C-alpha cells in the first residue's frame, strides 16, 4: 500500500528530475515564479507535510508544467510539460569565444545534450582505435569517423536552429571539443545535464556552454480562472501547511 510519505518521496524525485532536466538551480526556479529555495528543498527531499495548493501552483509555473500538474503528481499521477516557456542558451569555445545562441522550446535542450553526448562518445571511441592496427580496427575507425561527422552535424543543427552549413559545423566542433576537454556532461537517471559552472582563481568563468538567460513566464492574470492567489496561500510559508491542503 502506498503511503503519504511514499507519495511525497516520489513527488520530490519528480520535481528534482524536472529541475535537472531543465538545467536550473533552485534559485532560478524561484525566479521563474516557483516556490522559495527553502520550500523547494523540502519538496525535493520529500519532507512532510505535503505542499499546499499555493506551492503546487508555483511549481507548475517554475518548472514549466501545465496548470494542475503538480497537484496531480503529488497524488501519484504524472505532470504535463508546457511549451510556453522558451529557454535561451549561448555557446562558447574553450577559449571563451562566443559561438552563437539559440532558443529552444520544451524538450529540445535535452535532445541537444544527447546529441552532444553522442558526438563525445563517437570521438572518444575513434581516439581509442586510432592507434590500433589490422583491417578490423581500420574498418571500425572509419565507421566511427563517419559517425562523428554525422553527430557533429546534428549538434550544429541543434545549436543553430537547423543550420548545418560549414560555418555552423566548425562552431559545433569547437563546442564539442570544449565539452570533451572539461567533461561537463553528466548523466542524471535517463537524462543528461551539465555540471555546475566554476570560476578560476581570478574569478573568471570557466564554462564553455552555459545558460545565460531563462525567459521568465508571464505573470498570471489576476482576473483569469485559477490565477495565483498569494493572500490565500500565505506566500512562502506555503509548505508549512497541513497535508490535507494538498486536496
Give unreliable regions as ranges: 204-238, 240-247
Rg to the nearest angstrom?
A: 21 Å
What is the first-to-last residue Cα distance? Answer: 19 Å
Spatial sequence of strands, sheet with the most strands: 2-1-5
Shape verdict: elongated
CATH homology group of the largest domain: lambda repressor-like DNA-binding domains
CATH architecture of the largest domain: Orthogonal Bundle
What is the CATH level 1 assignment of the largest domain?
Mainly Alpha
H and E string: HHHHHEEHHHEEEH
Number of separate helices: 9
* Amount of helix: 40-55%
CATH topology of the largest domain: 434 Repressor (Amino-terminal Domain)
What's the count of strands?
5
Largest sheet: 3 strands, antiparallel
Please state roughly what percent of the residues sit in beta strands, choosing from under 5%, 5-15%, 15-25%, 25-35%, 35-45% or over 45%: 5-15%
Overall pLDDT:
75
Structural class: mainly alpha
Supply the number of structural domains: 2
What are the salient characteristics of this protein?
disordered C terminus, 247 residues, 9 helices, single chain, 11% strand, mainly alpha, three-stranded antiparallel sheet
Task: Offer a quick outline of the entry.
Helices cover about 50% and strands about 10% of the residues. The chain has about 250 residues and is mainly alpha-helical. The strands form two sheets. It has a three-stranded antiparallel β-sheet with strand order 2-1-5, covered by helices on one side. Strands 3-4 form a two-stranded antiparallel ribbon.
Amino acid at each position: 500500500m502506498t503511503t503519504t510519505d511514499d507519495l511525497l518521496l516520489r513527488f520530490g524525485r519528480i520535481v528534482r528530475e524536472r529541475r535537472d532536466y531543465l538545467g536550473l538551480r533552485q534559485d532560478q526556479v524561484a525566479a521563474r515564479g516557483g516556490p522559495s529555495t527553502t520550500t523547494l528543498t523540502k519538496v525535493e527531499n520529500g519532507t512532510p507535510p505535503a505542499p499546499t495548493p499555493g506551492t503546487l501552483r508555483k511549481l507548475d509555473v517554475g518548472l514549466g508544467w501545465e496548470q494542475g500538474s503538480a497537484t496531480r503528481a503529488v497524488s501519484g499521477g504524472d505532470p504535463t510539460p508546457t511549451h510556453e516557456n522558451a529557454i535561451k542558451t549561448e555557446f562558447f569555445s574553450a577559449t571563451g569565444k562566443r559561438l552563437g545562441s539559440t532558443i529552444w522550446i520544451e524538450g529540445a535542450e535535452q535532445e541537444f545534450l544527447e546529441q552532444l553526448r553522442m558526438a563525445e562518445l563517437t570521438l572518444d571511441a575513434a581516439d581509442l582505435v586510432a592507434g590500433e592496427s589490422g583491417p578490423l580496427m581500420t574498418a571500425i575507425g572509419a565507421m566511427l569517423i563517419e559517425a562523428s561527422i554525422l553527430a557533429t552535424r546534428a549538434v550544429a543543427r541543434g545549436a543553430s536552429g537547423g543550420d548545418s552549413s560549414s560555418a555552423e559545423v566548425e562552431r559545433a566542433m569547437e563546442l564539442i571539443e570544449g565539452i570533451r576537454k572539461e567533461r561537463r556532461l553528466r548523466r542524471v537517471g535517463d537524462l543528461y545535464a551539465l555540471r555546475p559552472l566554476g570560476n578560476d582563481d581570478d574569478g573568471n568563468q570557466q564554462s564553455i556552454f552555459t545558460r545565460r538567460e531563462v525567459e521568465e513566464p508571464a505573470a498570471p492574470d489576476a482576473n483569469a480562472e485559477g490565477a495565483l492567489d498569494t493572500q490565500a496561500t500565505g506566500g512562502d510559508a506555503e509548505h508549512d501547511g497541513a497535508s490535507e491542503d494538498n486536496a
